[in-house]
Amino acid sequence: MKIVYFGSDVFLSCFEYLVAEHEVMALYTYHNDEDYFNENNIVGRAKGLRIPVHYEAIDRERIRKYFQEEGCELFFIAEYDKKIDIPEDLTEFRGINTHSSLLPQGRSYYPIECAMERGLPETGVTMHKLSNALDSGDILKQRSVRITREIDSIDIYLMNATNALEMLKEILGDFEGAWAAGKPQPEIQPYWKRPADELLTITHDMYVRDALDIFRRYNTMSEILIEGRVYFASAVMPGSALLPKEEMRVHDRLWLYALKDGHIRVNVFGKNQKNRK
């Protein structure tokens, strides 16, 4: 099968399966600093296989060319940040989107983080037919994941990736049958917006457990106020000892950060630094 792939490292195992068993014609990807998983591995793999890599958005003319002139049979989307505008008269078009929630609940760019923010007991991954309405196409397959105190958002992304690979193998094992069996979503639920800054931000007036809960839910979306600036946090470890000052730089990006009942050891990053009062 000739496939155009859209995505990042989140579902890298799906990409590896497709390049092994099918023909991947091109990779469309993106970069976002606040995402824990970026595009480093998938781009390196594609370049090694001489698969063209695109960061630009795809337009309708290019979509038509893939399906009408170049023999593309499927667009496979797995964690991609741009909307694909499907020509409504392109009857040849077929696309599958991989979304990290149990649709119809969890239409969002941040479905896992928002599910944890809402205290839901489970989430999961859905593969559905791509449509021009975001996260709204007929459902092909779903798998669920329990949300427990022992796991964080990155664990859920990785569990979803394992489940997605199995789902993809099942769908492509009988593609025509799976496509015909797609079930319309019973209702289109509200879109979950990006969590508010105050939910993402670690500050000195918190307890250690509160800071860890923020990082558990949001990982590298988590923000921390240091010397009047906001940084992303890439790793957080708890400490019980009190500090002689609120913020102590250890080296490079590593800081000790005082909280009400101890401190955290936090690695920070981000060119998107900004002042916040």
Structural topology:
Layout (H helix, E strand, L loop, with lengths): L1 E6 L4 H10 L1 E6 L11 H9 L4 E2 L5 H9 L5 E5 L16 E5 L11 H7 L4 E8 L9 E8 L6 H21 L1 H6 L16 H4 E2 L5 H11 L4 E4 L2 E11 L7 E5 L2 E6 L2 E14 L2
Parallel strand pairs: 1-2, 1-4, 2-3, 4-5, 8-9
Antiparallel strand pairs: 5-6, 6-7, 9-10, 10-13, 11-12, 12-13
Can you characterise this structure?
With 277 residues, the chain is of the alpha/beta class. It folds into two domains: 2-180, Rossmann fold (3-Layer(aba) Sandwich); 197-275. It is 28% helix and 30% strand. It is built from eight helices and 13 strands. The protein has helices spanning 12-21, 40-48, 60-68, 111-117, 153-173, 175-180, 197-200, 208-218, and strands at residues 2-7, 23-28, 53-54, 74-78, 95-99, 122-129, 139-146, 201-202, 223-226, 229-239, 247-251, 254-259, 262-275. The strands form two sheets. A seven-stranded mixed sheet has the order 3-2-1-4-5-6-7. Helix 1 (12-21) runs parallel beside helix 5. The longest helix has 21 residues, at 153-173. The N and C termini lie far apart (54 Å). 35% of the residues are buried. The model has no long low-confidence stretch (mean pLDDT 95).
